[in-house]
């Protein structure tokens, strides 16, 4: 009898594992393929490319002036005293104060840890002055950030845990424990939760709504900002792709999203079958029927693993997770 019980429990466990594996493949859209959609005036940006998959290689911050006729990528010098050897930047955001001071917020993963670094941009010297390092227990797996003040921000945690194995287990079991955190020097709190994997975050031009990409749920969440800085969900926009980072076109309020059509290709890299790229433009997201347009798509032959797309004055910049960057004139 005991053997039958053991066998039955083993069968249930295997069935559960199989169901979770199938669900994970669906969340990764592991079978999806795309047709390329090209733009006519594009070229790869010099100086940005795949150097190494090694996580111990230090990162940097690059700047491009899109007002220039032929913009180029320039690496900004970072002030002495900051630990450049372990610099591993992830999400970034800027805040311009009333006196026109430009602050740069950077999600950093030094030695697989999680910090937020605040810099001041020194325009005349094209350099960054490091001001502050922020660590907090409510920021265990920080992915992206949107600055709303000189020391205030919202940030996404793509996982509840910081331990790599527990992160994998959390993803595999589809626990929906990811969240959004509000940070200020006086208060730090979770302001939205229940995400599969909260990723990109940005804010509407009128500062009333926060937009969050849930990459494995294929959704963009619209969250209304409250006077106490809490967030109230007002809408969810379902999509047919893994939405990574979001950016706002300031004049129109359109959302531009760097996306991964097939997440399995992204996480299990095969140079003979590379991850593809996709850029979406979402217009009138607050309306009953937002317009979603695929502006660019590539099967990996030109651009692999698009993670962000940003538009300024008719110019589109597409970045990737670990590949190259593309500049297009729309």
Automatic annotation (TrEMBL):
Transmembrane segments: none
Catalytic activity: an N-acyl-L-homoserine lactone + H2O = an N-acyl-L-homoserine + H(+); a phenyl acetate + H2O = a phenol + acetate + H(+)
Cofactor needs: Ca(2+)
Sugar attachment sites: 245, 299
Binding site for Ca(2+): 92, 143-144, 199, 244-245
Keywords of the record: Calcium, Disulfide bond, Glycoprotein, Hydrolase, Membrane, Metal-binding, Signal
Protein EC: 3.1.1.2
Domain of life: Eukaryota
UniProt modification remark: Glycosylated.
Subcellular location: Membrane
Subunit-level organization: Homotrimer.
Name of the molecule in the record: Paraoxonase
Native organism: Fukomys damarensis (Damaraland mole rat)
Lineage of the species this protein comes from: Eukaryota, Metazoa, Chordata, Craniata, Vertebrata
């Amino acid at each position: 009898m005991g053997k039958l019980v053991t066998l039955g429990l083993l069968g249930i466990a295997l069935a559960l594992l199989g169901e979770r594996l199938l669900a994970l493949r669906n969340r990764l859209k592991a079978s999806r393929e795309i047709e390329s959609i090209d733009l006519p005036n594009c070229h790869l940006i010099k100086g940005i490319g795949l150097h190494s998959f090694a996580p111990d290689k230090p990162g940097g911050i690059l700047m491009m002036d899109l007002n220039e006729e032929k913009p180029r990528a320039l690496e900004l010098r970072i002030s002495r005293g900051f630990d450049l050897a372990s610099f591993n930047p992830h999400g970034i955001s800027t805040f311009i104060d009333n006196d026109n001071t430009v602050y740069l917020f950077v999600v950093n993963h030094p030695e697989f840890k999680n910090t937020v670094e605040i810099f001041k941009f020194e325009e005349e010297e094209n350099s960054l002055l490091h001001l502050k390092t922020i660590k907090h227990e409510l920021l265990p797996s920080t992915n992206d950030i949107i600055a709303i003040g000189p020391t205030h921000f919202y940030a996404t945690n793509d996982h509840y845990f910081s331990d790599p194995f527990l992160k994998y287990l959390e993803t595999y079991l589809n626990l929906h424990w990811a969240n959004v955190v509000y940070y200020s020097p006086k208060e730090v709190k979770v302001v939205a939760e229940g995400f599969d994997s909260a990723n990109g975050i940005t804010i509407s031009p009128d500062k009333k709504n926060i937009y969050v990409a849930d990459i494995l749920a294929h959704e963009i969440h619209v969250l209304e900002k409250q006077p106490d800085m809490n967030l109230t969900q007002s809408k969810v926009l379902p999509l047919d792709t893994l939405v990574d980072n979001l950016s706002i076109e300031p004049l129109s309020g359109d959302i531009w999203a760097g996306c991964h059509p097939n997440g399995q290709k992204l996480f299990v890299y095969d140079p003979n079958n590379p991850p593809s790229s996709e850029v979406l433009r979402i217009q009138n997201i607050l309306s009953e029927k937002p317009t979603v347009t695929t502006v660019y798509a590539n099967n990996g032959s030109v651009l692999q693993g698009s993670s962000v797309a940003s538009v300024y004055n008719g110019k589109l910049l597409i970045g990737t997770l670990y590949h190259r960057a593309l500049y297009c004139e729309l």
